[in-house]
Task: inverse folding
């Protein structure tokens, strides 16, 4: 049976770090790539956590012989720009690891369709993000059991787990409003690829618009459309700040992936955070946590998403006639990038 020392010998990572990662020590600071490497090697070597060895047969963590595929909508280079999807994949791999479920990463072939290394059947697939009908068909060549994470392509046919975007936007807007902000801007993609890659209004923008319209302070001129990457955020925000004489006093970033570009644009415009403009980001990855200054953010509970995805997969494999969608709450994380404005009380 493989040991922590065996994993350390392969990865070059200390035994203490490996132990803390495998035991879900949330106080340890290691990159998503390092975590992924540890779990991948542990699985390859057949390492079994101590707590799983002593679980009684039939318990939640009892070992199984299942093999699950994991597919991501973004190519590896885009995942490095937006670590949210890498973190989500890591959480799924951790949860499977603790249940004794083998995982394998699906990759796109030359035709852009997904395939598993070595071929062969899979017992299920977790699909992170949005996929075309053709991509979904490529999943179903391996298994009829597909659970979507972060999207809902077809509520009638597929299990899905998603964050509660409505709650997240309510949390962010409530924080802005209670601190006296009235000119609240939105930076992010106006449309998102859902299900079959049809263009649909992004859920974050939908709720942003509805909440502020109900308060009578929605301003279309402060809603800025950009791809959710750092370079695009910099370009769009820089242009918007130059063009708008009446600048916003608060800014909502619909993804942490835009943080660095947005902060650069604000710095060049001479705006300080939070003295001149308050900011709340969405996802709460290391990009907002380690920003300068650290940004208040809406945290997507990825561990809970992964746990719910495994539960959904168990139901899916039992062939329940009616699939369901699980909506996981979000948390507002305060880090001081929002301060009170000297304005009238909240509407």
Result:
């Amino acid at each position: 049976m493989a040991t922590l020392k065996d994993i350390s010998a392969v990865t070059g990572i200390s035994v203490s770090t490996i132990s803390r990662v495998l035991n879900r020590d949330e106080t340890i600071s290691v990159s998503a790539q390092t975590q992924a490497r540890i779990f991948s090697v542990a699985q390859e070597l057949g390492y079994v956590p101590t707590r799983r060895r002593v679980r009684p047969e039939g318990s939640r963590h009892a070992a199984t012989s299942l093999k699950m595929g994991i597919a991501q909508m973004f190519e590896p280079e885009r995942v490095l720009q937006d670590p949210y999807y890498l973190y989500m994949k890591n959480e799924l791999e951790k949860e499977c690891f603790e249940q004794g479920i083998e995982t394998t990463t699906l990759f796109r072939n030359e035709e852009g369709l997904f395939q598993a290394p070595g071929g062969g059947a899979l017992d299920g697939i977790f699909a992170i993000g949005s996929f075309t009908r053709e991509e979904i068909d490529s999943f179903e060549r391996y298994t009829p059991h597909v659970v979507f994470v972060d999207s809902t392509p077809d509520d009638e046919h597929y299990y899905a787990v998603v964050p509660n975007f409505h709650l997240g936007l309510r949390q962010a807007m409530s924080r802005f409003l209670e601190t006296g902000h009235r000119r609240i801007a939105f930076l992010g993609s106006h449309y998102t690829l859902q299900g079959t890659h049809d263009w649909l209004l992004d859920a974050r923008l939908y709720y942003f618009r509805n909440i502020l319209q109900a308060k009578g302070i929605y301003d279309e001129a402060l809603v800025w459309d950009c791809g959710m990457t750092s370079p695009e955020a910099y370009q769009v925000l820089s242009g918007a700040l130059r063009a708008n004489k009446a600048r916003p006093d608060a800014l909502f970033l619909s993804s942490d992936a835009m943080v660095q570009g947005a902060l650069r644009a604000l710095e060049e415009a001479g705006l300080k955070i939070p003295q001149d403009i308050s900011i709340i980001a969405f996802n709460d990855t290391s990009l907002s946590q380690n920003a300068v200054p650290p940004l208040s953010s809406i945290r997507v509970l990825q561990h809970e998403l992964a746990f719910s995805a495994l539960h959904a997969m168990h139901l899916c494999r039992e062939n329940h006639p009616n699939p369901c969608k699980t909506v996981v709450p979000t948390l507002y994380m305060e880090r001081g990038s929002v301060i009170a404005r000297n304005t009238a009380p909240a509407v």
